[in-house]
Structure to design on (642 residues):
């Protein structure tokens, strides 16, 4: 379970030129709070620049928050510390692979870094390559992979150690319809009891995906939680029948 | 520590699959050292033949039969200079200096009027300069002989001209004569060391940032120290591999050397070669750590390369400081990496004894630099993402 309370983060905008000068402050995240339960897919829905990625990076202990608290299975996340990372599988927006290693080598390397035995990691790769459709290119070097192949490999890499909590930042980018469907099925299975009742946070700006997949939706706008609930609850809240309209109403209430 | 080895193994495989790294290793080891040695030996050969060939170019020899007699008695072959010797000297078609004798030479000589001869050379031409000294000596000898004869005819001992007897006694250490070659050899090894692992060092730090693999890597529950040590071990291994191959390439390269003196000088025992590698080992590892520390701040290969160029240029230059100094090296030299290794390499190449005491200061200073650089990398590795 991941609990986020009153999260905030601001950055200093870099200023160009020969000498480093102090740029103005930008508030990327002002006040984000939500709770992602186990066995449930929680969707983080927001426009570009709403603060989704920054929030996810703070949950992944890659960025230090200015205010608020993040608890992963009751343990407080501390930026730069590895205490909560073992139980977390993260697919962030930086998803670079090692081009001179094969997809399998890339995934197994991360498995071993997570403390798995080599054989165990290889066995896990076979399971993931079946579920995510990596079979055709699993033993090829990543150099020259298509966008979709890269994405699938990065996804398998994030899930190799069978983490309890899964954070996916726009995981369907670059995937075709069939792959997106397969991924959706796989995520549903991961949430089920057979799949281990994982806690999944899924960030996207695609309405359809949220409608089809997420049981709980957190609408993020201008760095703050604008609304949250299930899709029917949000529709009711916005008094709309179309989810896109509901989102626009909830996210840009002041602006529209 | 086990994790660090796993990381090192992955980094090494990654680097060895990289064509650019392999090309660098091959170029430096297979061609660098042998090429340098062949060039050096050829230039030594040229210098030696210059001294040994005993031939001089003279313009206007018909004006000086006495001088011709003297020169021929000294065993020199006289070759008449071409009429356009000046332009030929400038265009380097003619490389030796030319002795020019005026038309009234013999006449002035017989009247004891001190005739003048000219030694014509091109100052920009190295080879023609080296030929000047033998010519001067020859003319001095001629003058002495004539003066001695004149004195003898007047019943005065020619020894009156030699008030002081001057002789040279050489105190050079054993085989110290090839200083130039040895200097070049140690500089080449330094250059090899800073350039060998450079690409791998950049790829493992700035490369990770550029391709966006550093962020996912930092999400593994592994300490920054393990990552830093692992990466450093991989690049260090690669660097030292190149250094070992470079040192070993002295063997085959010595077959290419035509100059006898140089070939004898480059005959090292196995123990000496091992010692040479041992001296370079701490420096190689320290330089690797510094390279990674510099490169980690670069967001891309290009940026990191620009930052590291400074080190590539500076390292061989620092090692050359001792060349510009005259006299004994000051004590602090042995505490400065590069300078101290240069000193030790010089000793080994001169067949002097290098004891374990000599190694203490260089090893300590390199270890301090390594630890400082690695500490910085481990701090920065996660820091650059925040």
């Amino acid at each position: 379970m991941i609990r986020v309370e009153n999260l905030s983060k601001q950055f200093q905008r870099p200023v160009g030129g020969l000498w480093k000068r102090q740029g103005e402050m930008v508030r990327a995240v002002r006040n984000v709070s939500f709770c992602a339960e186990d066995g449930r897919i929680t969707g983080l829905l927001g426009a570009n620049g709403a603060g989704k990625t920054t929030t996810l990076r703070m949950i992944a202990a890659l960025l230090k928050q200015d205010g608020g608290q993040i608890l992963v299975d009751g343990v407080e996340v501390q930026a730069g510390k590895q205490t909560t990372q073992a139980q977390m599988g993260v697919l962030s927006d930086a998803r670079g692979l090692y081009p001179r290693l094969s997809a399998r080598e890339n995934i197994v390397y991360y498995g071993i870094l997570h403390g798995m035995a080599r054989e165990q990691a290889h066995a896990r790769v076979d399971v993931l390559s079946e579920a995510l459709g990596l079979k055709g290119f699993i033993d090829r070097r990543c150099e020259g992979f298509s966008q979709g192949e890269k994405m699938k490999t990065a996804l398998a890499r994030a899930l190799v150690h069978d983490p309890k909590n899964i954070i996916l930042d726009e995981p369907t980018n670059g995937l075709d319809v069939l792959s997106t469907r397969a991924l959706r099925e796989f995520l549903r299975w991961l949430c089920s009891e057979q799949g281990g009742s994982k806690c999944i946070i899924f960030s996207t700006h695609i309405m359809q995906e949220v409608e089809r997949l997420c049981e709980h939706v957190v609408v993020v706008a201008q760095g703050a939680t604008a609304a949250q609930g299930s899709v029917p609850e949000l529709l009711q809240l916005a008094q709309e029948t179309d989810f896109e309209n509901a989102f626009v109403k909830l996210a840009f209430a002041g602006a529209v | 520590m086990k994790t660090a080895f796993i990381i090192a193994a992955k980094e090494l495989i990654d680097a060895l699959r990289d064509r650019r790294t392999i090309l660098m290793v091959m170029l430096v080891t297979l061609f660098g050292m042998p090429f340098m040695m062949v060039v050096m030996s050829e230039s030594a050969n040229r210098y030696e033949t210059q001294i040994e060939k005993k031939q001089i170019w003279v313009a206007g020899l018909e004006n000086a039969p006495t001088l011709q007699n003297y020169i021929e008695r000294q065993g020199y072959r006289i070759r008449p200079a071409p009429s356009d010797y000046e332009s030929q000297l400038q265009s380097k078609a003619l490389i030796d200096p030319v002795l020019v004798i005026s038309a009234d030479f013999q006449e002035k000589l017989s009247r004891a009027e001190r005739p003048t001869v000219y030694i014509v050379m091109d100052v920009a031409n190295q080879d023609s300069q080296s030929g000047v000294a033998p010519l001067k000596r020859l003319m001095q000898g001629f003058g002495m002989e004539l003066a001695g004869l004149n004195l003898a005819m007047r019943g005065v001992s020619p020894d009156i001209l030699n008030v002081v007897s001057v002789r040279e006694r050489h105190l050079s250490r054993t085989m110290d004569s090839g200083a130039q070659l040895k200097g070049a050899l140690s500089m080449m090894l330094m250059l090899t060391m800073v350039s060998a692992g450079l690409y791998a060092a950049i790829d493992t730090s700035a490369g990770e940032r550029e391709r966006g693999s550093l962020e996912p890597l930092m999400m593994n529950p592994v300490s920054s120290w393990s990552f830093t040590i692992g990466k450093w071990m991989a690049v260090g291994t690669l660097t030292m591999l190149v250094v070992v191959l470079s040192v070993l390439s002295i063997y085959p390269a010595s077959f290419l050397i035509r100059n006898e003196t140089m070939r004898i000088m480059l005959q090292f025992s196995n123990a000496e070669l091992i010692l040479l590698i041992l001296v370079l080992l701490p420096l190689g590892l320290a330089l690797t750590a510094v390279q990674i520390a510099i490169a980690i701040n670069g967001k891309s290969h290009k940026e990191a390369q620009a930052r590291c160029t400074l080190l590539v240029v500076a390292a061989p230059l620092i090692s050359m400081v001792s060349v510009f100094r005259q006299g004994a090296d000051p004590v602090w030299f042995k505490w400065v990496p590069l300078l101290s290794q240069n000193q030790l390499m010089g000793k080994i190449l001169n067949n002097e004894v290098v004891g374990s005491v000599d190694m203490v200061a260089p090893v300590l200073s390199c270890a301090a630099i390594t630890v400082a650089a690695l500490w910085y990398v481990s701090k920065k590795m996660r820091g650059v993402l925040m």
